[in-house]
């Protein structure tokens, strides 16, 4: 906050002094262009520029606050956009008005921003929209300015015209020495000014410590404003005079300004981080470290509860815990009591009518300490050696991928969907029209369900997967608008079997494959088939879950008017959705069960890590963690997510055989909490059958 406020005042005052000395400099070139400003006129001009700009900025700021108050419809998207347009329009209007009144435009915009910040911040309808707009605008304008200045600066250094006076001046060693000497002098002057006023700034406002004053002195990066002013002077001199002496001088000023900006970016900027740590400005205190540790502990509890909720989902009930333990490190050392507490939290947080017992058959054996003993592991052949050749993993999967299933063709789906429905709509044209409207509503519910899955982290927001899912809804909506039954599964098959999907997978994976190792054509095709299967299984899981969410939302909405029964049209739409899900489940059953389990397990790791990242993002938005603190954890989560995506192992370290799983399930009377009686019986019977076969 100190550095930002000091930077704003520096920019404003720098422009005021630049205006004064620019007029004197131009007067020496062309008297009709510049002005011969003396001491008295100089002070008068200084106060007019600064105080006049301040008054204009305050006036426009008050007007902007009033207009923000008038745009008071918080739920209106148009008013939110109008507020954003208002801020940028008034900013430029303030600048031009100040310049026309021969006042400082930068000072005017500065006080405009301060006024709106002080009195209008709470009048903004959509703060996220406003903040993101100005962040993007700032980034674009800074990028444009530095690109333009860099092109001019680079052109001055490598210009092929070696006979010009400009190049003779710049390429002399004396000028480079002047640049480095000026850089040192500017740092010394900045240190002197800040510490000269340190007794004052240490007691006013929130106060400033000597460490903060030291960092403010060192971190004064000269950038956008200095480059813009030097570039404008350089351009103006070249327009008003052909004299090479003055042109060379303007070029040298721009060279020194650009060089100072370059040196601060390559010297000051990289060393600011170590200096902050050395001064203790970013080193957290012991109490802060305890708070961060508490947040991490709660994140582990939250992630473990989310893992238990996934085990209660029929899609993920058979997850392999060795995969989760490998790719979600903070769940690697969970204790038996922690798991019990997570199951209890899941039961308390879930409505009784929708609660389902989580299947912990693949988790409980690893909660016993003996699960890590060598005698309880299947053997070294089942363990994962991280240094082994990854091509062996490809060969181990080749058998299961030889008969890699493709999604059904459109012609096959047309034959399946032609079997008809148990509801007959031919008797009533009105009911048929109502069913068409209900289908469109249901498709909107599906679109909202996909967006919900993206927010939950179950579907990535980028990539071909969300594209194919939303594209299928566009096709289904077109058909529903023509009175045809719900057919988003058919549309999804078209998108998944299209050439674009295969091209996308090739572009995503070819570079990584050939970068890591040299492989044969057969291994490349096997690799591509694996990632194709990974994509399709995730697509099927998202499709099934989205229909489940949409059916529930559609059913609740249809019965929200007090009716106990659904209409015929609503039943038709729900039946069509059930048929679509059945087709998706049939396609999922065609995949190898072991491969699907591995894909589901890696997919679940991605979901858990995404939810953990969202947990830290929430803490940051609520102000409980700083952006830097949350950023460190988010980078850690991102690294784990990337590792999960790249993993191709079919087995992971510490995997236990079914014989030992049955022996090592803790017997403490807790089974009713984690397994329903039928599930517990079936799991136990399956384990016993596997043991008998062995």
Question: What labels describe this entry?
Answer:
72% helix, elongated, mainly alpha
List the helices and strands and how they pair.
Blueprint: H1 2-29, H2 39-70, H3 77-100, H4 105-119, H5 127-158, H6 165-170, H7 173-196, H8 198-201, H9 210-218, H10 224-240, H11 244-279, H12 286-311, H13 321-327, H14 336-349, H15 391-401, H16 410-417, H17 429-456, H18 464-481, H19 488-496, H20 499-516, H21 521-558, H22 568-589, H23 593-621, H24 627-646, H25 658-664, H26 671-674, H27 677-693
Q: Kindly, what is the distance between the CA atoms of the first and last residues, rounded to a whole number of angstroms? A: 68 Å
Number of contiguous helices: 27
Low-confidence stretches: 160-167, 369-406, 409-422, 669-694
The tally of beta strands, per DSSP, is 0
The H-and-E topology, N to C, reads as HHHHHHHHHHHHHHHHHHHHHHHHHHH
Query: What would the principal axes of the Cα set say about the shape?
Result: elongated
Helix content: over 70%
Report the mean per-residue pLDDT as an integer: 77
If you compute it from the alpha carbons, what radius of gyration comes out, rounded to the nearest whole angstrom? 34 Å
Strand content: under 5%
Main sheet: strands, sense, barrel: none
Based on helices, strands and strand pairing, what is the structural class?
mainly alpha
**Quaternary assembly:** single chain
